[in-house]
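Q: Here's a chain of 642 amino acids. Please give me its 3D structure as tokens.
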Amino acid sequence: MTTNEIRTKYLEYFKKHNHSIIASSSLVPENDATTLFTGSGMQPMLPYLLGESHPLGKRIVDSQKCFRAQDIDEVGDNRHTTFFEMLGNWSFGDYFKEEQITMMWNFLINELKLDPNNFYITCFKGNEELGVPKDTFSAELWQKLFLKNGIAVGIGENPELDGMKSGEHIFYYGEKKNWWSRSGVPANMPDGEPGGPDSEMFYDFDPTDKKNIHKNSKYAENKCHVNCDCGRFMEIGNNVFMQYKKTIARDGIPGFVELPQQNVDFGGGLERITAAVRNDDDMFNIDVFDEAKKLLINKSGKSYGDDEKITYAMRVILDHIRAATFLIGDGIVPGNKDQMYFVRRLIRRSVRFARDLGINESFTREVAETYINTYKNEYKNLDEKSEFILGELDREESKFRVTLDKGMKQFERVVLFGYEGDFMEKTLVSQAVFDLVTTYGFPIELVQELAKERGLNINMQIVEMKIEEHKALSRTASAGKFKGGLGGDGEMEVKYHTATHLLHQALKIVLGEDVNQKGSNITGERLRFDFSYNEKMTDEQKKRVEEIVNEKISQDLPVVREDTTFEEAKNKGAIGLFGDKYGEKVSIYKIGEGENRGDEKLFSLELCGGPHITNTGCLGEFKIIKEEAVSAGVRRIKATLS
């Protein structure tokens, strides 16, 4: 089966089990201050996991686009990517462990035909001090499902110490492996935070150890088990059982109580599941990479898989251009700030590794075209925005090629400058590295990568100090930059989230109906709102927007949520990103009285998932503190409430 077929099969399977299919959210999170990107399927679902009702009911299924910037340096092996799709199914207070585990077994083993002999499970071993018992229910249920397939399996108690004994397929691990909360392990969770045990699923790509992976690796002295990272096992999915809430007793001892609403949150990497279906542990051999890989092979004249350095470079390019294609498709152009910085870094790393393949002419556009063609039926925005995506890739690649050529020559000179400090440590001269970054525009990450490849060191503490001193001297009126995202469901974040609705409508009144939201970013201290507009706002326009927003705040207008059909929301004139959606029902928020946008007493009508305050009177005074350009045709407002 192809990746697209597996995605469809998953969605349709859970649809048959009464789940509503929803579309993927953007890679730019609207309501999460903890990260610049949507890095898991859970993020867009957090309000519903915490108790808010979903307009489509208690059973949801999706395939969520994800990007994890922290994995950029991990790309190059057989399993890490920055961009991936996470298959997810959700129960908001409906079914729990028994139905979830049974459905996942049936899907993976009976629908996708994975070999159960290569299937392994981990469960939570409990924490008596915190009052959380061992998850014997899940372990024993998995054991029964194996037995129904004629396979009697054992349960391992201490795999990290004892390794895997013959016949064991189910293992208990502690909270570092088999516990989920937003804050990590139970000890880090604040009072009131929800969390729970999880049950992870692994696929064994080398059951006979025919490649001798473990014995010849850095893990050779350790006993092999499913979580040892030796390369034999790959996690393909995680069933999270949101079961508990942390409490602090009067004597200060933390503990956990059962949540009134027990939720299920499943996340499974689509690409990893596809690799398991193929029984090939190299994730870059799945079909979505085929055309891009052929292109790189033809352009370079080199083979994939034969030479370690060549294979590494191809994997980096295959991942990075796919990620950049999707990020630009969601409106993030290459730049120096926030999300834009990572798009730039992805493209520049791709161009740098293309040199290792002998590719010294423009290539990113052609690679991106293969991905647009592969994914266009599922993600129509890639096809609709193809020229925009390809144009941005072209511009960034052309710009960086000039920098790269000059920088590589200068890097060779830096190497010849000699070393500082202990000669044996081979540390490059800090001033020379600083000049390479500031004068020649060479990214510091690239300098670090090149130095590492040659066994050279950089005193980053000194280099970063020099760079910061340089920034301080050249800094003008900027007082720093805001950090990114809706920080949670605190009172101020909720107020700022509601204020963006007032701001959006006020901008339409002052600048015209063609103004549309391009993104928002909220913390407890301010809001940031991106919108489509081609000119810098005048002082008069900004003042008028402030006046309108504050007028609506003073009127103490009601803020009301309404769950309705997608078509009805459009008919009412609700503002929103009306792309292709799977679900028929949506949530809209009304500010003021009336039913349809344009009604005299209705100020704002917007498609949104929440959370919101109940009336505008508690917002305080709205003040625009900055208005600036983000990219061509996109402006940004930063504002506060006081």
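Q: Can you summarize the key feature?
A: Residues 438 and 474 are 12 Å apart (CA to CA).
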